[in-house]
Amino acid sequence: MQLDRYDLQILRVLQEDGRISNQDLADRISLSPSPCLRRLRTLEESGLIVGYRAMLDAKKLGLSLMALILISMDQHTPERLANFEAKIIEIPEVLECLLITGQDADYQLKVVVKDMDSYQDLLLNHITRIKGVTGVHSSFVLRRAVDKTAMPI
């Protein structure tokens, strides 16, 4: 899909404010509402825009502990990895699961929990019980120095 300057402007604005009205979006990018809406629909239908979400404050929800967990697996077969991913997606505390290279680990997880007791329960009763997990290394987030979701376009 070829993106022109209007498409890129629409994407930039939507990354800042996904709830903006079509009229306000059209005004911001200097386009009339009808063509703006057509472009927006095209971007959505193409799959470039994959969804709209509300960003929540974890601390206000009582989820004050964030950890990054490196996971090592015993085997690197497609079946073993698929099983791990199927199990990990069922755990609501897991915000992100990345298959990685360049480490002594196979996966990196980003998790959020209430406190250290909740973390211990998550780790010992859920993550380490997944078949194939042989190693776990945890790091705890002290502060988010950069926290953005916008793609650099």
Automatic annotation (TrEMBL):
It comes from the Bacteria. Keywords: DNA-binding, Transcription, Transcription regulation. Signal peptide: none annotated. InterPro entries: ArsR-like_HTH (IPR011991), AsnC-type_HTH_dom (IPR000485), Dimeric_a/b-barrel (IPR011008), Tscrpt_reg_AsnC-like (IPR019888), Tscrpt_reg_AsnC/Lrp_C (IPR019887), WH-like_DNA-bd_sf (IPR036388), WH_DNA-bd_sf (IPR036390). Residues 3-64 form the HTH asnC-type domain. Pfam families: AsnC_trans_reg, HTH_24. PANTHER family: LEUCINE-RESPONSIVE REGULATORY PROTEIN, TRANSCRIPTIONAL REGULATOR AZLB. This is AsnC family transcriptional regulator. GO terms for molecular function: sequence-specific DNA binding. The keyword Transcription regulation applies. GO terms for biological process: regulation of DNA-templated transcription; response to amino acid. GO terms for cellular component: cytosol. It comes from Ferrigenium kumadai. PROSITE patterns: HTH_ASNC_2.
